[in-house]
Amino acid sequence: MRIPILLFFCITIAFTSCSPYQKVYRGDSMTAKYNLADSLYQMGKYKKALKLMEQVVPVYRGKPQAEKLMFMYSNTFYNLGDHYLAGYQFERFETSYPKSDSVEIAAYRSAKSYYELSPRYSLDQKDTYTAIEKLQNYINKYPNTQYRQEANDLVAELRGKLEKKDIEVAKQYLKISEYKPAIEAFDNFISDHPGSQYRKDAFFGRFDAGYQLAIRSIPRLVNERLIIAKGYYANFAKYYKDSDLIEDADAILEDINKRLNTEEPTS
């Protein structure tokens, strides 16, 4: 026999309203709320636990249970993927309980929360810079931590993202024929990222941009800028004469030499 829809909803509401969780959630006992939140947290039922924690956190501040509660509260946001609040709450935990046994893991998860907030390289990288700062501060503060290697790997990944953004910006200037900004961007990249995997591209890009700027200049500036471009070639060849880009670089240099009426070798 089919149960009418209205009756079905009434039964569902009745059972829901009488559940142990709802009784505690709607009740006045903060002790019951704390204990149930703790139990749910241990079982990994973070959403339900969080609703109870939001009720008891203001009441338990300053009490003996507060340290454990505030760590659980912070970690609940972390496990739910709310990294803005996780980072903030873990930072508060560090400040409030500097002698806690959990302070190191709180510091790491705070820093890692900012890492999780770092967007893809093409977007604004404010959160990436913050994440690098937080992770580096953590490594400096806890040099013997078990998370040292992981933290260093995260920093390297984030730095790689900044490098990717910077090299793409420089390449975009070159692509749209903004040669002076391209040269400046490649110059900055070479200075700012000495160990980057994109360093070869930056040296070649600067040379190419210098050459393009020269051949498109007014006549009285062409030779001067071609000579400057040859200097960029020398810098490139010094480090990357065996690279896959050397043939392209040599072809450009050959044209520069022809324009300058020289017979200098191309490599």
TrEMBL record:
The keyword rRNA processing is annotated on this UniProt entry: no
Pfam families listed in its UniProt record: YfiO
Keyword Membrane carried by entry: yes
Keywords carried by this UniProt record: Cell outer membrane, Membrane, Signal
Domain Outer membrane lipoprotein BamD-like residue range list: 29-215
Name of the protein described by the UniProt record: Outer membrane protein assembly factor BamD
Organism: Ulvibacter litoralis
